[in-house]
Amino acid sequence: MICTLCPRRCGAIRTPTEGRGYCRMPERPVLARAALHHWEEPSISGTRGSGTIFFSGCSLGCVFCQNDAISHQDFGKAVSLERLAAICDELTAQGAHNLNLVDPTHFAHVVRDLLAAYRPKIPVVWNSGGYDRVDTLKTLEGKIDIYLPDLKYLDPDTAQRYSAARDYPETAQAAILEMYRQTGPCVFDEHGLLRRGLIIRHLILPGQVPQAKAVMDWVADRFPPGAVQFSLMSQYTPWGDLSRCPELNRRLRRGEIRAAQEYMQNLALSGCTQERTSAKEEYTPAFDLTGV
User: What's the pTM value of the predicted model, to 2 decimals?
Assistant: First the structure.
């Protein structure tokens, strides 16, 4: 395939076993982990956990990525479409509340083909960095129940410095609006679990509280009250080589977290916040081919 799935539209030729594009992935899906995960948003994890399937590779270049082993170092194992469907069944049998496809952007063709032939008994979650093409998302219409994108930045210079994607702000905003068009307002079951809808995530970065406030302003301005959920994340942990961005080589200060949380409260955004204690390395899953 000549790939134009992600916003980079690099046109790389991806064969079943080899990839040369920005994501470095072949046409065939590559997975690093498939297991129940209890540290997503409460309406996703519930009591039994979310059935997370971690794809390897990435179309972003975030310098602070905690999933560095799979997003930058490409750890993972190629599987067939049939094996991917079997993994979905296995996670369902383990009691997963949903099937949570983590960083699927560059494997959108795989997700489309999977869900064209296989309809899970539980909701399907598209868990992405928000750097998605609207045209690609349209090919998934009717197949994704819950969209869980990041909205990392609204400033192009910051997006370029930290994620090597100057076009991230307008791209992510357009993608999120398309996601909402597909799902409509959030729908919960009697246990408070999300069955359909959109959760927008934002990870507070050191020194970037103004960016967090700008993101929250955008969400509050674009969506009716309660129509979407907002997840304000404070789990940032310095990770990898941050020599090019030394300002990120520290944990969040209590005042930064408090200021962002108070701003969210004042805007009356529906959703959830994280405690500062969530900024621990042990909350990052072990990428060891579990469940693959």
Answer: 0.96
